[in-house]
Amino acid sequence: EDQVTQSPEALRLQEGESSSLNCSYTVSGLRGLFWYRQDPGKGPEFLFTLYSAGEEKEKERLKATLTKKESFLHITAPKPEDSATYLCAVHPNTGNQFYFGTGTSLTVIP
Amino acid sequence: DGGITQSPKYLFRKEGQNVTLSCEQNLNHDAMYWYRQDPGQGLRLIYYSQIVNDFQKGDIAEGYSVSREKKESFPLTVTSAQKNPTAFYLCASSIRAHLGETQYFGPGTRLLVL
């Protein structure tokens, strides 16, 4: 069964304290892995797409990496405005459906 | 500005009532999706459409119906058969449904039961 697990469920960081969020997946084959940011009461905002192991993408303080079994979202020197829920989704090789994790709720304290 | 719009932002449903959520996109995307988001759960797929006049059930289609008469529009009806409709509903679109294309989301509609 295709599955996506995100950890930790919640993370509190001091401003400037770097950390990583994890997304592990078990799928029959991967077409793509996607990271989104979601603010309370709003729709998810697209961040990154990764397609193959070893791939990395960066945007401001965020960097996403991909291995054959998991992806990491690294946050370098976070600021309070980075506080949000970060969602991971995978698109397996079979079918047209995305599978989403339950997200990591990040709080950055000034 | 290209994007996805959903309306209304909030919707109240009475017992036994059908309600329709609107989703419009001007991205010229072929594929559109409806998800339901509940606290502590990942997004769950209700229906998706790869092309006009075609749609497929997702994991939780019972109690919902959709239509795709225009490329830009993919309305979702929550019927009275859906016994637990309170949730945050998200519409998304992608260039195509396969090939690992990125899905882009609208702002969402929160449905509450009176």
**Distance between the amino and carboxyl termini of chain A:** 41 Å
Percent strand of chain A equals over 45%
Shape of chain A: globular
The largest β sheet of chain A comes out as: 6 strands, mixed
Strand content of chain B: over 45%
How large is the radius of gyration of chain B? Answer: 13 Å
How many beta-strand segments of chain A? 11
Largest sheet of chain B: 7 strands, mixed
Helix content class of chain A: under 10%
| Extended strand count of chain B | 11
Question: What are the defining features of this structure?
Answer:
heterodimer; A: 110 residues; mainly beta; five-stranded antiparallel sheet; 11 strands; 0% helix; B: 114 residues; seven-stranded mixed sheet; globular
Protein described:
Chain A has 110 residues and is mostly beta strands. Chain A is built from no helices and 11 strands. In chain B, the strands form 2 sheets. In chain B, strands 2, 4, 5, 6, 9, 10 and 11 form a 7-stranded mixed β-sheet that branches. Chain B has strands at 4-7, 10-13, 19-25, 31-37, 44-51, 54-57, 64-66, 76-78, 87-94, 104-105, 109-113. Chain B is globular. Chain B has no helices and 11 strands. Classes of the chains: A mainly beta (110), B mainly beta (114).
